[in-house]
Amino acid sequence: MFEKKYVMSQEENIFWAKRNLVDYIWKSANLEGIGVTFPETQTIVEGISIQGKSIDDINSIVQLKHGWQMVFESINEELDLAYIKKLHLIIGKMTVINSGTLRMDEVRIAGSSYIPPIPTEALAEKKIREILSSGREWTEIALNLMLYLTKSQLFYDGNKRIAMLAANKLLIQHGCGVLSVSQDQLEKFFTLLISYYEDEAQADALKKFLYENCLDGFRGKVSD
């Protein structure tokens, strides 16, 4: 069901991601409710200041750019909890309480009655290892990792951004395309995401939506 959708080399996939980087950063910002336009995102990514945007919003865009740079520079490094914590150091809100450490308190998810358990390093490491060693095709492994990181809420902030970047590291490493959610798909994405929070059995519906609507690349897989 979730076979490799695109056939690219790692180098081709990196080129594709870099070519469309501003678009991916813009979509990730929208995913987190950061109200920026594509031209504003491009301006910020290019290091030019703009008027009318909060420092937090501008910093979030810059941090996403740095997060993508980390992914490109470490594309073949092992993806484990330590790596994900490094991503959080780059793209999370840099405060003493949450800089690169797992959350230690209960959090609520807007729109959902689901309350994610307080994470532990041992359980998070175990779950990530299980996902990565499942033997499934890398596209599905990346989707499974994204779903786990989003639902587990390992950090106080930035969980969707981190989940998306971690999934994209796997996808790009194995030439499987790039995952992003466009503005016109946000409502459907959040509807399915809330359903998945409430009921683990809805995972396949969310994965199917992401696979069919949110993966891009070139040279689609030719059926035998």
From TrEMBL:
Cross-referenced Gene3D superfamilies: Fido-like domain
Pfam families assigned to the protein according to its UniProt record, in alphabetical order: Fic (PF02661)
Segments forming domain Fido: 79-212
Q: Which domain of life is it from?
A: Bacteria
Q: Where is the signal peptide?
A: none
Protein known as: Fic family protein
- Supply the source organism for this entry: Mordavella massiliensis
